[in-house]
Amino acid sequence: MKKEGRKRWKRKEDKKRVVVSNLPFEGWSHKENPNRHHRGNQIKTSKYTVLSFVPKNIFEQLHRFANLYFVGIAILNFFPVVNAFQPEVNLIPVCVILAVTAIKDAWEDLRRYKSDKVINNRECLIYSRKEQTYVQKCWKDVRVGDFIQMKCNEIVPADILLLFSSDPSGICHLETASLDGETNLKQRRVVKGFSQQEVQFEPELFHNTIVCEKPNNHLNKFKGYMEHPDQTRTGVGCESLLLRGCTIRNTEMAVGIVIYAGHETKAMLNNSGPRYKRSKIERRMNIDIFFCIGILILMCLIGAVGHSIWNGTFEEHPPFDVPDANGSFLPRALGGFYMFLTMIILLQVLIPISLYVSIELVKLGQVFFLNNDLDLYDEETDLSIQCRALNITEDLGQIQYIFSDKTGTLTENKMVFRRCTIMGSEYSHQENAKRLETPKELDSDGEEWTQYQCLSFPARWAQDPATRRSQKGAQPLRRSQSARVPIQGHYRQRSMGYRESSQPPVAFSSSIVKDVTPDKNLLTKVRDAALWLETLSDSRPAKASLSTTSSIADFFLALTICNSVMVSTTTEPRQRVTIKPSSKALGTSLEKIQQLFQKLKLSSLSQSFSSTAPSDTDLGESLGANVATTDSDERDDASVCSGGDSTDDGGYRSSMWDQGDILGSGSGTSLEEALEAPAPDLARPEFCYEAESPDEAALVHAAHAYSFTLVSRTPEQVTVRLPQGTCLTFSLLCTLGFDSVRKRMSVVVRHPLTGEIIVYTKGADSVIMDLLEDPACVSDMNVEKKLRKIQARTQKHLDLYARDGLRTLCIAKKVVSEEDFQRWASFRREAEASLDNRDELLMETAQHLENQLTLLGATGIEDRLQEGVPDTIATLREAGIQLWVLTGDKQETAVNIAHSCRLLDQTDTVYTINTENQETCESILNCALEELKQFHELQKPDRKLFGFHLPSKTPSITSEAVVPEAGLVIDGKTLNAIFQGKLEKKFLELTQYCRSVLCCRSTPLQKSMVVKLVRDKLHVMTLSIGDGANDVSMIQAADIGIGISGQEGMQAVMSSDFAIARFKHLKKLLLVHGHWCYSRLARMVVYYLYKNVCYVNLLFWYQFFCGFSGSTMIDYWQMIFFNLFFTSLPPLVFGVLDKDISAETLLALPELYRSGQNSECYNLSTFWISMADAFYQSLICFFIPYLTYKGSDIDVFTFGTPINTISLTTILLHQAMEMKTWTIFHGVVLLGSFLMYFLVSLLYNATCVTCNSPTNPYWVMEGQLSNPTFYLVCFLTPVVALLPRYFFLSLQGTYGKSLISKAQKIDKLPPDKRNMEIQSWRNRQRAAPVPEVARPTHHPVSSIAGQDFSTSTPKSSNPPKRKHIEESVLHEQRCGTERMRYDSCSGDSSAQLSSGEHLLGPNRTMANSREQTDMSRWSKRGSHRRSQSSLTI
Question: Which of 195, 261, 637, 1001 is most buried, most CB within 10 Å of its CB?
Fold first, then answer.
């Protein structure tokens, strides 16, 4: 029992890391230091040393099957019994290939070594007890337990726990661009208990022990605790951890203790490098290589059997059959086996060793042209395409399914405030809508920067070495211009103290976001609410009423406070603003207020107050004309809340505490301190708001438009300026950051006037509406009715916003008593100090606080479509690509964005499935499948997918009506039911009938599961595209992952295979570059296999005339030069530069992309046709010279030279026939290869007298060139050999029905005729569309072809017909009442579902007769089939 207990204790201890200070052990031996087991800070990313390079590199290269095969053949050739060539000569090709790869690896590793050396020798300040100060040491000398001092703009050398900051609030600002690409500042806070230090931190007085988790790669998670000498514990989290590689900003000095060092830091554990994916062509090629091996074995068996039979024809042993030392001869079977091995050596070139190297070089060339395509460069963001995976470029031309995120991918991720609802009253903001509809959007970041660069900077910026100017007079370095993540192909200026490109100083701050036009009706009510707010006091707290005035005030306070926005000024971007309370006496007269307003040029506001002013007594209690100072030089004090409403952190940020705020009663804050008037400073600079998400920025700018201005934020308090100019400073007691599980964010503040503790919460409506206080629990019937009415009307407005494609957020509040909060705060502190199950405990405490909320209102934010998205989606669909949208947004929002971007059409039938019940989900899937199958009349399906039928590519429709287009919309709960209920087969079968699928409210894990399901079960090529951290799993799961360099950071880019700046770039990337890359590489691989089989067969045919002895008629060196020099360059040029169709034609005719989807250039049939052609050509190239020279007395090399020359000519001419593009470069390479052969042969045969004893190639070529028969044979034989291929290509070009052949004909026409042919082609395609890949034929209605889709809301004069597939509804009683649900797709009308309604009730039946009689209506209008689940638990 004791042993088991010790084992359990040891296992538990192994999960922890204990760190103590190194200072008490300075000067001691290394073995006596308790931190000795932790790794040092020196890093080594290089793989080799001088001694280990050769053996280690060879070992790694032998992991490749082809290399292992050729090395084995070379070793086998050293055995005299089976050798076919000179062993040394046979080693040359293998050594060349291995040497080229080794040189490449050595060069890459040398670069890594030099980079490591630079990083390891960077200097930092480490505290020394001996010196009693901080001394300079290299990064490689840093150890766990050392105290590090960092200054502004320095890079953090290790993972350090922050113990001191020069900022009075204990805040340190970080830039994490090197980790996640995000350029906005992050905040880190000193560990609790160390933040109130007024003097310099003394490391020698630190005697605490830090216990934390083992090193891991979670950038946003860290848990541990600090144990003090008195055995008390303080919890520490990621809010106090400075990660290696981050840069200190806006903080003069910071001190911390090293927790993780070197390769144990989170940055190094995340440095996994580019991932390796195998392309479809490579997988196909491996299969064909095995076929080639089969051909090789067959040929060797023929050689071995032939050798035995030939030897058997001799009555006695021939003179060349030499016995061994004992005078005995080899048995015939053993001789045949040896000949089998000899033939393998002789015919080894059948497996092309140079093919793999050629493929790598071709892909490098393709990537070069990809990176230099100006059409894939975005001028606004100064970003071009980035190719991170070099081995799958050809897969871009074979994509069948695209899985896309919505926010930031299809949309701009520029959140614009559009409208709001408060207490059930909707404010449409028509003036703001008109502003956004103007064609000229004032969204020029460059113009804003021009304004900022005219402003002066403090003197200390000029003294900072990081702000030096370049000789070109570049702008001084500001925080916003600091190091962007150094990614190849992204041409950002790195942080070098100056900057040349124009960028706005703050993210999410373009004019289209900031300049919100207020609603006139709401503006008047906001002014009244602001005046009411000032009438509050601690003796007159706000009553828990549902008055509109109080709710409007709380609504805008929540918009201003409930966020993690940093405040700065335009004169000093990123310099924090702090408002110090004033203690002067307050004024009492309304006249003074009006005078103040006139000084601030707010005369209109003053008049408004005059007309609606309360009594002088009320105002006199609250207003004054005191001056509030703005100290822009003081360092920021910003809240340490993380993640915006649209950010998926995946973890939880610890809340920030102030012990005094928690323990205080709230009465100590006087009215004079809480309420103050600003100075009438007309030159006061404008505030800049830097948010971690665009949603937060949009809401703060909206509140600012109504004069609720966020002025200052520190970890302890947040200051808001009201419309009349006074400032309220709220004590910030706790911040519960946003996370993807809770889908909400909350702040707990103490009201400065009433002293109440208030929780302001904002989050997704699907979450907030379930956390509201139940009206049935309210005792007052009038209040209950009013609450129900407010919630119902708000839900109706939310559905309206979603139908308009707006992102919705609900705003709520809750008043907490002092006792309840103190109890909750105690639990929260315990959860933060916990090391085990910390995340679960933090989640549980958050849920305890965020309930029984009072709804204030909701907001609608527009995420504008990116330019060119509708056209790109329409083009990709014409190319036969299925597009699915996987998003975490609301269902209605996603549906309307899908309509806006042409993913769904007004005539489409949209099936919407929302259910958590597996049986119900299966029933709905069956019903939808049955209905769709009736329309497609699948009597004899053509294909099957794991046992179930797929729609025919050419369904026969007996009716004259058009087969309806179908779309499918499901949510995350339905996906869970599908995956858990084993309904994947039915789900996939249903999607085959749908032209679009939308998965809403889906988690990152669900996104990746959907991608893997489609990829693995349908065996199709998939592509995922996204821009945020929540898209990383989806991007990695697909065959090709594409990241968009958006406003959500660079996580998606860093995990992607390709990175682009705009979704519209996907069109040219796939249709043009994808087609070219696939076509070039596929045809090059086929050509390579043909070339080697054709050449090797010449040696095989010769064996029938040399007694299967394994001898050759071609010189060994000539055979080596044949593959290395004479035929190596033309395939490379072909693979990099050939264009079968021009880019203009490929873009104009997207249907041409289907050739790559169907693998027309390289498949099983093309492989065997090429093999047959290679056998035919080898027969011609061998037997025509054989019959010509038959009976003559020429030697073996004189016979082999014409054969070698003919084969080279035939292979090069074959390459020329495959080329679709001819340039001078193509001609020079082909002609140069041919002439090089003769030049090398002449020199070799003139100088090599005894190079290949006993045979002699001396003067053979020179003799042949003087023989007319040689010229005749070399001219006629290639013609005969290539005649079948030429005839086939001629027929294909003349009578070919393939799209590629037709497009190639069009491409050769003059521009005018070509455009006319393309237009007529497109007209024919509209009349009779080409069947799409892996989905049924669709017939788009021609009347909507020219419809304008520029608006974000799909409009139709005839509202679509809607059918319902209802789930039986289970309503759970909450406090004795039934909750109402509204059908968000039924316009303004709401439909309440009864609890007894059946899945297919009498009025919801789907009878066949009814559907058949209604079929004619499908072509006239769309129908929206809504299957709704109202299950509420």
Answer: 261
